[in-house]
Amino acid sequence: MNYTVFDSPVGKIKIIEEDNIVIEIRFVKDEKNISPNTEILKLVKKELEEYFTGKRKVFTFPIKLEGRDFSLKVYKALMEIPYGETCSYKDIAIKIGNENSQRAVGGANNKNKLPIVIPCHRVIGRNGKLVGYAEGLEIKQKLLELERKYLEKDD
Q1: Distance linking the first and last C-alpha atoms of the chain
Q2: d(CA 14, CA 31)
Q3: 87 noted as active-site residue
Q4: Which of 25, 52, 57, 120 could join 83 via S-S bond, C-beta 3.0 to 4.6 A?
Q5: Nearest residue to 84 (alpha-carbon basis) of 135, 150, 9
Q6: Angle at 90 between CA 89 and CA 95, to 5 degrees
Q7: Of these residues, 120, 124, 144, 146, which one is catalytic?
Q8: Quick check: helix, strand or coil at residue 16?
Q9: Per-residue confidence (pLDDT) for residue 67, from 0 to 100
Q10: CA R_g for the chain
């Protein structure tokens, strides 16, 4: 297992890979920056930096999705939410064929080990308010603002 830590516009990010597959991305506070030492870590860092500057909207590096069948369905549905757009927990529940599972969708989002790549930050409450984000609502807000900013520049 290898990892790198770097500064992003929304805080320090740690990327962990195993056998050239990204298994986790997490926000950290007290870890020192570490330069990427594998090709996959260099690629992930480059693509995340491109994302933060509005140059990348889709990631190409290999990821490992982990979880139960329900969570995997949620993660796949999350990856279909277009850059710069949002939807509700109920929207995701309907998309995966289980209309009354909004709380479970929230639970799956909370366990997401690949934030940004699996864009759980794009899921908001039905009333349009920001709710629930394992990394904190401040980071969720910043990610949504960043995407909207660069989406507007594309128009």
Answers
A1: 41
A2: 8
A3: no
A4: 57
A5: 150
A6: 100
A7: 120
A8: strand
A9: 92
A10: 15
For residues 87 and 115, what is the distance between their CA atoms, to the nearest angstrom?
A: 16
Sign (positive/negative) of CA torsion 98, 101, 106, 108?
negative
Query: Is the CB of residue 124 less than 8 Å from the CB of residue 86?
Result: yes
* H-helix segments, 9-113: 39-52, 69-78, 89-95, 102-110
β-pairing, 11-18 vs 123-124, is unpaired
Confidence of residue 154 (pLDDT cuts 50, 70, 90): low
Nearest CA to 59 out of 15, 107, 108 is that of: 15
pLDDT tens-digit series, residues 62-79: 999 999 999 999 999 999
Question: Interhelix angle for 69-78 vs 102-110, to 10°?
Answer: 80
User: Minimal CA–CA distance to 84: which of 48, 56, 45, 49?
Assistant: 56
With a cut of 80, say whether residue 108 has pLDDT above it. Answer: yes
Q: Do 39 and 68 form a contact (C-beta atoms < 8 A)? A: no
**pTM passes above 0.85:** yes
